[in-house]
Predict the structure of precorrin-2 dehydrogenase.
Amino acid sequence: MNRYYAMMVNLTNRPCLVIGGGRVAERKILSLLKANAKVKLISPVITPLLETLVQENRISWEKREYKRQDVKGYSIIVVATDQKELNQQIYQEIDHQYQWVNIVDDPELSTFIVPAMIDRGHLQIAVSTSGASPGLAKKIRQELEKQYGVEYEEYTTFLAEMREWILQQGLTNEERKNLFEYLLEPDFLRRIEKGESKDLLILKIKETIKENINKERELLS
Ligand SMILES: C[C@@]1(CC(=O)O)c2cc3[nH]c(cc4nc(cc5[nH]c(cc(n2)[C@H]1CCC(=O)O)[C@@](C)(CC(=O)O)[C@@H]5CCC(=O)O)C(CC(=O)O)=C4CCC(=O)O)c(CCC(=O)O)c3CC(=O)O
Ligand SMILES: NC(=O)C1=CN([C@@H]2O[C@H](COP(=O)(O)OP(=O)(O)OC[C@H]3O[C@@H](n4cnc5c(N)ncnc54)[C@H](O)[C@@H]3O)[C@@H](O)[C@H]2O)C=CC1
């Protein structure tokens, strides 16, 4: 079994090809769309949900069987037909030097595999078993979803906005480091979880920080 390298890939507007339009292809397409990829689908038959995505112009679809000339010019190719031999044949016809390939029924041939994802706004947690047990990756994803609830969407936006502001304040490395630590105190997560407005919280914290910095600087001068 392979040992994989995890990375976060920017697929915005990148051309991605999915061959086969069944249940598994549907799952891969939904996650590609979440990453703003430009998805093309080739398959004679597709699921009702994929039909809807085609009608909404969110993916393009060629209603036909795969041809050898199809597999050129993509960042990512997902091979998801239900025929093992065909999937292997497609693998042979892909130029692997320039394209990342996921063969859904053959981890050994794939140049990348897809983890189970917890999606909480800026926070994404990926769970992988390296193909040992995709079912376990899904189970752990479901457990982590309880631990990292929807409040993390607002919370990570709060952290991102505060961080950007702190970076613009012309502080010393030491001051910045202390503030980033301060932001991670559990109290802020708790307050957001309880429904306190993120924007008001940000205003209050900025005031506190400014006061403290001014006080410290007066003491030092
Ligand atoms: C190697 C990999 C390649 C890839 O697809 O990238 C792969 C391969 C295969 N999956 C198979 C089976 C199942 N896959 C799932 C589910 C998911 N599979 C996903 C990823 C991966 N699956 C990659 C490894 C990821 C890793 O281990 O880290 C997830 C995480 C992500 C996603 O697909 O988006 C998504 C969960 C999403 C979620 O819910 O969070 C379930 C459960 C279910 O469907 O409910 C089952 C049945 C239970 C079981 O088998 O465990 C089979 C056998 C098919 C057969 O029996 O013929 C193969 C082929 C083989 O192993 O040879
Ligand atoms: N990686 C994963 O997470 C999982 C992988 N699998 C594997 O994935 C494969 C696909 O599973 P499902 O999506 O459930 O199958 P499915 O039967 O729902 O879909 C297969 C799709 O392939 C298309 N297809 C068939 N011949 C084609 C051709 N010549 N050119 C283009 N498209 C063609 C069909 O039209 C259909 O849309 C299975 O063989 C299974 O071994 C199964 C479960 C999970």
User: Anything to note?
Assistant: The longest strand covers residues 38-46. Residues 27-28, 31, 102, 104-105, 107, 110, 113-116, 128-135, 137-138, 141 surround SHN (ligand 1) (CB under 6 Å). The domain at 15-114 is CATH 3.40.50.720 (Rossmann fold).
